[in-house]
Specification:
CATH topology of the largest domain: Rossmann fold
CATH class of the largest domain: Alpha Beta
Shape: globular
Helix content: 25-40%
Number of domains: 3
Strand content: 15-25%
CATH architecture of the largest domain: 3-Layer(aba) Sandwich
Largest sheet: 6 strands, mixed
CATH superfamily of the largest domain: P-loop containing nucleotide triphosphate hydrolases
Length: 362
């Protein structure tokens, strides 16, 4: 029987060393999940697995559970005698995270152990620099390296202009241009794939993620649909799945996400240009609005930075601050910010109370 080269599936020496501590267990990688069951690939092939009772008892949060891309320790390499049992999840080197559904503050691992994250954005209806900034912040925070992939170049009439706009917010991130019309339309992407490399594709629905992955796979494994005329994407991927590439390495396809939380986004890297400018402002607590000697505002006046990008940065920082809070907590945070100059809400209430007392005397 032919065995599978797990190093081609991304297994590195640091995981091998960690796995050695677990006796009588075998290493595998999660390639998909179906509710409480996992499809895992091992040296002996694919099998169905579930977590042990002890694992479930000791797991504190959703992020403790196995996710697509995780390397796990199993009690067997074949499931001929029933489902394999997952006893441990090996340490993740990167993880793409989003807030779990519902009111809980729990985080959900979308995909793990990714080397390169392709942020896909179509050059027609989907083109949105502010959304791209959001994705960049989350991608940097994952621990993987982001690469911007502009799809559907064949449908764009002003490619050079849009490419210039993207590079202005990319802050050094590689920018690739692809087309689904030609067989070599994704040639630029292939240099990021290969033996042991794991890539993942994120982006809005209908931007061409599935088409791009099909090109890398060499077949039409994934269903594809484009954007509607009303700029709304069609969901074609219904679950996360890791697939081996014929040229080596693996790719993880993820569903389009309509709401992408940025609670743990790395905005410092996504907006590195603004942070660098802010470091040269005259005042260390500059708000970049009306202060004299503001390097950020000067860059806007000189045409080196767009005002829209500064506004976007401010909005995302506020959103990250309020992420995970309920409506009452958000209002409390807003009031605290409003009254920060008078010592916070406590002093503000005291001030209002004293003011009302003086009014009553008259």
């Amino acid at each position: 029987m032919n065995t599978i080269d797990m190093t081609d599936a991304g297994l590195g020496h640091h995981w091998m060393d960690e796995a050695a501590a677990y006796t009588n267990c075998y290493i595998g990688r999660v390639i998909s999940q179906y509710k409480d069951l996992y499809k895992v690939v091992t040296e002996q092939g694919e099998l169905t697995a579930e977590i042990s009772g002890k694992f479930r008892f000791t797991a504190n949060t959703l992020s403790d559970y196995p996710a697509v891309g995780d390397f796990v320790m199993l009690d067997r390499q074949k499931d001929t005698l029933g489902n394999a049992i997952i006893h441990h999840v090996l340490t993740r080197k990167s993880a793409f995270v989003r807030k779990a559904a519902g009111t809980s503050h729990d985080e959900q691992i979308v995909a793990a152990n990714i080397d390169t994250i392709f942020i896909c954005m179509a050059l027609n209806y989907d083109f949105n620099l502010r959304r791209l900034e959001r994705y960049l912040g989350v991608a940097w925070d994952s621990g993987a390296v982001p690469v911007i992939v502009l799809t559907k170049a064949d449908l764009c009439d002003n490619l050079l202009q849009k490419l210039s706009e993207v590079e202005a917010v990319a802050c050094g991130v590689d920018v690739l241009v692809t087309s689904s019309m030609s067989e070599d339309g994704c040639a630029a992407v292939k240099k990021y794939t290969g033996h042991g490399q794991t890539i993942a594709c994120i982006g809005s629905s209908g931007v061409g993620k599935s088409t791009l992955i099909n090109r890398l796979l060499g077949n039409d494994t994934l269903a594809t649909q484009g954007l509607r005329n009303n700029d709304k994407g069609r969901h074609t991927t219904t679950r996360r799945e890791l697939m081996m590439l014929p040229g080596g390495g693996a790719v993880i396809d993820t569903p389009g996400m309509r709401e992408l939380g940025i609670e743990s986004a790395d905005l410092a890297k996504a907006f590195a240009d603004i942070d660098e400018l802010a470091a040269t402002c005259k005042f260390h607590d500059c708000t970049h609005t009306r202060e004299p000697g503001c390097a950020v505002q000067q860059a806007i006046q000189d045409g080196l930075l767009s005002a829209e990008r500064l506004i976007s940065y401010g909005k995302l920082k506020k959103e990250a601050k309020y992420e995970g809070l309920n409506s009452r907590q958000i209002e409390a945070e807003k009031f605290s910010a409003m009254f920060a100059k008078v010592g916070g809400m406590k002093n503000a209430r005291k001030f209002i109370k004293e003011k009302n007392k003086r009014r009553q005397r008259f």
